[in-house]
Amino acid sequence: MEAHLVSQTKRLSISYAEYATWASRIKDLLCFLELWPLHSSPPAYTPPLAAAALAATFNDVDFRRRLRGAAVIRGFLSDALRARYAAEKFDDPEVLWEQIRRDAGPIAALRR
């Protein structure tokens, strides 16, 4: 099933022209991987942590789940979009998903 979802999903291009189809397929993949819904606690972006705290956080299941969610989403972006969403705040999949939706503009409004 996962291989089928992956093979059927194209990368989102810089034009966002296929956003509605892309978003639907990415959501299906995230659901299959048990990474949807994207929100977690805390849902908002947290500034970078101190090195010791960061090492401890890597053991946190929720933190790893969020990183996996962001990695799946970014994995299906064109290289240009990947570069656009490379900032650390986009390691939070909820922030990343919402920013892509906003950037897609009127096309994304159809997906609400």
Characteristics:
58% helix, globular, 112 residues, mainly alpha, 7 helices
| The number of domains | 1
Mean pLDDT: 81
Helix content: 55-70%
Order of helices and strands: HHHHHHH
* Number of continuous helical runs: 7
Structural class of the secondary elements? mainly alpha
In a few lines, what is going on in this structure?
The protein has 112 residues and is mainly α. It has 7 helices and no strands.
What does the model show?
This protein is mainly α and 112 residues long. The protein is built from 7 helices and no strands. It has helices spanning 2-8, 19-32, 51-57, 61-75, 79-84, 93-104, 106-109. Helix 1 runs antiparallel to helix 2 (19-32) and helix 4 (61-75) runs parallel beside helix 6. The protein starts with a helix and ends with a helix.
Question: Could you outline the blueprint of secondary structure elements for this entry?
Answer:
Layout: H1 2-8, H2 19-32, H3 51-57, H4 61-75, H5 79-84, H6 93-104, H7 106-109
Helix pairs in contact: 1-2, 4-6
